[in-house]
Each structure stands twice: as structure tokens, then as C-alpha cells.
Design a protein that fits this description.
The structure holds two protein chains of two kinds. Chain A is mostly helical. Chain A has one domain. Chain A is built from six helices and no strands. Chain A has helices spanning 3-22, 34-83, 85-94, 96-101, 103-113, 116-151. In chain A, helix 2 runs antiparallel to helix 6 and helix 3 (85-94) runs antiparallel to helix 5. The longest helix of chain A is centred in the middle third of the chain and has 50 residues, at 34-83. Chain A is rod-shaped. The model of chain A has no long low-confidence stretch (mean pLDDT 84). Chain B is elongated, with a radius of gyration of 18 Å. Chain B is an all-alpha fold. Chain B has two domains: 5-88, Rna Polymerase Sigma Factor, Chain: A, CATH 1.10.1740.10; 94-183, Winged helix-like DNA-binding domain superfamily/Winged helix DNA-binding domain (Arc Repressor Mutant, subunit A). In chain B, 32% of the residues are buried. Mean pLDDT of chain B is 82; it is low at 93-110. The chains are: A mainly alpha, B mainly alpha.
Chain lengths: 152, 184
């Protein structure tokens, strides 16, 4: 018989021997309840991940609204001042009779001078503030709990 | 229907929560057994197994389809065991070195076939358990993965993050040591 064949045969027999030997090892059974513990741990991990995302979203919105609200307010005020809308409105209020006669021209002038960009920017930032506030009020227990847990 | 591991992962990401449970159930016994034989403590094995599956879930998105899930999960289990070992600061290999600085494995002869009488002994389970426990984890794990979980040497090398030749030589040493312990 070829020596290589003898060697391969011997190795194969040895492997079978040890595989047979290992069958004598009693299979180690995982303790009862381990599966449920794993599922629970994953569920907790999922919740933690969601809370982390929520906190990140909340903090991002908070920072953005802190920056954009005063900025958009300044833009709005500047646009109102430069547009002359206040002049048209005060004239209409002081001379109501003239306003009634020339109401179409007055209305058109007021409409043309409305600072639309400023109003939109300010409305969006106020909306963001309200949404952030609402988010905090609804999830305050979750967010504060996570923060307290992280710092303790 | 028996879904493959990769199919279960795909199904899980499509919103089938049950797919993950099936995957965990499929590997729970094998992973627990592997961890148990590494740490030899049922309480610690339980904690580590739990950590292994949480890590699997955490990294499931990073799992590449072309990779074998079984190898991947065992690699995670091995790394978690190593982390545990680092935390406990166990130095198991030096115990086996002799006064001349040679490792125990290097002082004994090459492995050979096991005598039939040994495999027919009544107390073989206890003897084998004792012999395996006497081996250091790096040797024990190779034997366990090869003969119990039927991984090839190439797969073991992937799991352990070692070179194929290192695994083969460690396997040879492990067999030599095991044989020595069994035949004492």
C-alpha cells in the first residue's frame, strides 16, 4: 500500500476516534429561561437604542430652535421695518375714511409689503420650538431617565 | 419550512421578529456549550452567552451575506470569552510551561490513535471531562470546535482569527496533551 494512503487513512481513523471520543461528552444544556433572558436583553437594548436616537433628535431640535428662533425674529423685525407695512397700516388706522375710499390700493400696498420670507422663517422656528416642547413633555420620563442613568 | 441562517437574517430585517428568535434558538445550545467549555462555570457561561447574542443583534446589520453565519457567531463568542478572560486576568498558558521554558505540549510525543480500551471504559465521560478541563482554553477550544461542532481547520482559523498552520499545530499539540491526560 502506498505510504501516503496509509498516512491519510491513519489520520482519518484518528479523526473518527476523537469524534467518537467527544460523543461521550454529555451535551451541556443551556439553563431554562436563558432564551427568554436573551430576548429580554435584546428588547432592552432596542429600547435603549430608540431612547438614544430620541435624545439625539431632541437635543438637535433644541439646539436648532435655540439658534433659529432669535435669528428668524430679527429677520422678521428687520423686514417689517424696511417693508413700510407699519406705515401703511398706521395710515389706514389713522384715516379710516381715506382707507375706505381707497381700500383696494391700500390692501394691495399692504399685501405687497408683507415680509413673507421673514414670516415663514419665524413660523417654522416657532413650530420647531413647539414640537421640541411637545416631544419633551410626552417623553420627559424616558429622556430624563436615560440622562440620569448615563450620568450616574 | 427550514429557513437558512441568511434567509432568517433577511426576514428579520424585513420585519419578521420571529426570525431572530429562530436564529437564537438554533444556536443557543451550541454557543452556550462552547462558552461553557471555555469558562467552565455555568453562571458565567450564561452571562457570556447572553452577551454574545446581544452583540450578534447589535452587529447583525454589519453581517456580510457571503460570510457563514455559523462562523461569524462563533467568532463573536470567542471574542466575548476573550474579553471575559481579560477582565478576569487569567493567565492559563504559563501554567503548562516546565522549568526549562518548554511548553508541556512540546515535551510529549505526537498524537496517535486512541486505544480501544480507552473508548470502552465506563468512566470515559468523567475522564474526558477532566482531561479537557486540564487543557488551556486555546487548546480546548480547537478540539471542541473540530470534534464537537465539526468545524474544519480553515473555519476554526477564521473563528479564532489565527493562521491555518497555527490552528493545525495547536490541534496536534492539543491532541498530544489530551492523549497524555487520558492515558495517565
Amino acid at each position: 500500500m502506498h505510504p501516503l494512503f496509509v498516512l491519510v487513512n491513519r489520520i482519518e481513523n484518528m479523526r473518527k476516534d476523537y469524534e467518537r471520543l467527544f460523543t461521550y461528552l454529555k451535551p451541556v444544556e443551556p439553563p431554562a429561561g436563558l432564551f427568554d433572558k436573551i430576548i429580554l436583553a435584546i428588547k432592552r437594548e432596542k429600547e435603549l437604542r430608540q431612547t438614544r436616537r430620541l435624545l439625539f433628535g431632541f437635543l438637535s431640535l433644541l439646539i436648532i430652535s435655540f439658534i433659529t428662533t432669535p435669528l428668524s425674529w430679527t429677520i422678521l423685525v428687520n423686514q417689517v421695518e424696511s417693508s413700510g407695512i407699519s406705515y401703511f397700516i398706521s395710515t389706514a388706522a389713522s384715516d379710516f375714511g381715506a382707507f375706505l375710499v381707497l381700500w383696494q390700493d391700500f390692501s394691495l400696498a399692504i399685501l405687497e409689503s408683507i415680509p413673507i420670507a421673514g414670516i415663514i422663517a419665524f413660523t417654522i422656528s416657532i413650530g420647531m420650538v413647539l414640537f421640541t416642547l411637545r416631544l419633551f413633555l410626552y417623553k420627559k420620563r424616558l429622556l430624563l431617565g436615560y440622562l440620569m442613568q448615563s450620568f450616574s | 419550512m427550514n429557513r437558512s441562517d441568511n434567509q432568517l437574517i433577511v426576514d428579520y430585517f424585513r420585519g419578521d421578529e420571529k426570525a431572530l428568535e429562530i436564529l437564537i434558538e438554533r444556536y443557543l445550545k451550541a454557543i452556550y456549550s462552547f462558552v461553557y467549555w471555555y469558562v467552565r462555570n455555568s453562571q458565567e457561561a450564561e452571562d457570556i452567552t447572553q452577551e454574545v447574542f446581544v452583540k450578534v443583534w447589535r452587529n447583525l446589520k454589519r453581517f456580510k451575506k457571503e460570510y457563514k453565519f455559523k462562523i461569524w457567531i462563533f467568532a463573536i463568542a470567542k471574542n466575548t470569552c476573550l474579553d471575559w478572560q481579560k477582565k478576569k486576568r487569567i493567565i492559563p498558558f504559563s501554567v503548562l510551561d516546565n522549568e526549562e521554558g518548554l511548553s508541556f505540549a512540546e515535551t510529549i510525543k505526537d498524537p496517535a490513535l486512541l486505544p480501544n480500551e480507552l473508548l470502552e471504559r465506563q468512566d470515559i465521560t468523567v475522564t474526558l471531562k477532566g482531561a479537557l478541563e486540564s487543557l488551556s482554553p486555546k487548546y480546548r477550544m480547537i478540539l471542541f470546535l473540530h470534534y464537537n461542532d465539526h468545524f474544519t481547520f480553515r473555519e476554526i482559523a477564521e473563528i479564532l482569527g489565527e493562521k491555518l498552520n497555527t490552528v493545525k499545530s495547536r490541534h496536534r499539540r492539543a491532541l498530544t496533551m489530551l492523549r497524555k491526560f487520558l492515558l495517565v
